[in-house]
């Protein structure tokens, strides 16, 4: 089954002048009991952070937090002693585990565009940890590029403590990629730009598709497109 969620159903939040966000799941002051998670995917925020601003230090625990920088850059600092600049095309994973605090700031004059995703971890009580990698995902064409995964068989990806994998795809018009999955898995797709045709369903910019009980997804670009695809376990026992 494919469930299409149009861009207009995203929750828009601009709590401060420097932040423009779209929440794909319940978050902060937005609560919908029917839209609180999809498998272990608990948060997906599409954020634009203006220059010389950002999130001050704040705490987290028992969550795998993944940040993809689509444009601009952010400086990450945390109480575990990590400090790094995450640039366009780079991916970061922070295991909050037993607890830490971090800040994310944009020290440039240019706005930063990021996706931030939170996953429920596959075990609690983990030690906080951090990983960052330049995956160069914004330049590769017409393939599903794995960025972050809990499957150790994948190489050159950021590891996370979740039985899930995040892919990115830059798909040219009239090109097709096929994603094979299983009924015990779910698939989440969010389109950054362009249009897609997925198993008979037309998908536009900032639309979502949540797929369950599908064996194969045939994804064709009607126009040049960029999208994120997340492979997820359907059952909590497999998180």
TrEMBL record:
Fe cation binds at residues 58, 60, 102, 104. Gene3D superfamilies: Jelly Rolls (2.60.120.10). Its cofactor is Fe cation. It comes from Hymenobacter wooponensis. Belongs to the pirin family. Keywords: Iron, Metal-binding. This is Pirin family protein. One of its GO terms (molecular function) is metal ion binding. SUPFAM superfamilies: RmlC-like cupins. InterPro entries: Pirin (IPR012093), Pirin_N_dom (IPR003829), Quercetinase_C (IPR041602), RmlC-like_jellyroll (IPR014710), RmlC_Cupin_sf (IPR011051). It holds the Pfam family Pirin. The keyword Zinc does not apply.
């Amino acid at each position: 089954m494919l469930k299409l969620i149009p861009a207009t159903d995203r929750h828009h939040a601009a709590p401060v002048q420097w932040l423009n966000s779209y929440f794909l799941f319940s978050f902060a002051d937005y609560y919908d009991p029917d839209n609180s998670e999809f498998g272990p995917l608990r948060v997906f925020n599409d954020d634009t952070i203006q220059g010389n601003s950002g999130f001050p230090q704040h705490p987290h625990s028992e969550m795998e937090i993944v940040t993809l920088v689509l444009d601009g850059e952010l400086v990450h600092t945390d109480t575990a002693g990590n400090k790094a600049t995450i640039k366009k095309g780079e991916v970061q994973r922070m295991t909050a585990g037993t607890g830490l605090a971090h800040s994310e700031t944009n020290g440039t004059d240019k706005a930063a565009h990021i996706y931030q995703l939170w996953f429920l971890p596959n075990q609690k009580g983990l030690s906080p940890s951090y990983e960052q990698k330049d995956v160069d995902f914004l330049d590769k064409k017409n393939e599903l590029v794995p960025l972050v995964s809990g499957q150790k068989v994948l190489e050159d990806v950021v590891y996370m403590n979740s039985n899930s994998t995040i892919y990115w795809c830059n798909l040219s018009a009239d090109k097709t990629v096929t994603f094979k999955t299983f009924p015990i898995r779910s698939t989440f797709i969010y389109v950054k730009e362009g249009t897609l045709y997925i198993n008979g369903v037309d998908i536009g910019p900032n639309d979502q598709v949540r797929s369950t009980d599908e064996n194969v997804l045939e994804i064709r670009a009607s126009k040049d497109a960029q999208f994120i695809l997340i492979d997820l376990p359907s059952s909590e026992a497999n998180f």
